[in-house]
Design goal:
Distance between the termini: 40 Å
Shape: extended
Order of helices and strands: HEEEEHH
Number of strands: 4
Number of helices: 3
Low-confidence stretches: none
Strand content: 25-35%
Radius of gyration: 18 Å
């Protein structure tokens, strides 16, 4: 019973925060999804068919995230080129036009 009461008055868990950062690469500017996740333990940069994503722990500063992106620009450009060459990057969806819809 005491455990239930403690859970009722406990502060809410921090939620995931998302925003977009523009990053200038050699040949283009891209949008990187920046996610501040309370479960994250380290900085993580990933690329999939939806684009680039930077996952950051809540305690990490925005400047550290920007520095991490800047330091890994070359890797990011290589991954985006590899996905684009394989045809895995999904073009934006358009109304009444056929296209691929990534499920996850």
């Amino acid at each position: 019973m005491a455990n239930l009461f403690r859970r009722l008055i406990a502060p809410a868990a921090p939620s995931i925060q998302r925003d977009t950062v523009r990053l200038r690469l050699d040949d283009a500017e891209i949008d990187v999804l920046r996610v501040r996740d309370p479960r994250a333990r380290r900085l993580k940069l990933s690329v999939d068919e939806r684009g680039a994503r930077l996952t950051m722990p809540l305690r990490t500063s925005l400047a550290a995230g920007e520095r991490f992106l800047h330091d890994n620009r070359q890797w990011l450009q290589q991954q985006l080129a590899r996905l684009d060459g394989d045809g895995l990057l999904a073009p934006p969806l358009a109304l009444r036009e056929p296209g691929a819809l990534p499920l996850r």
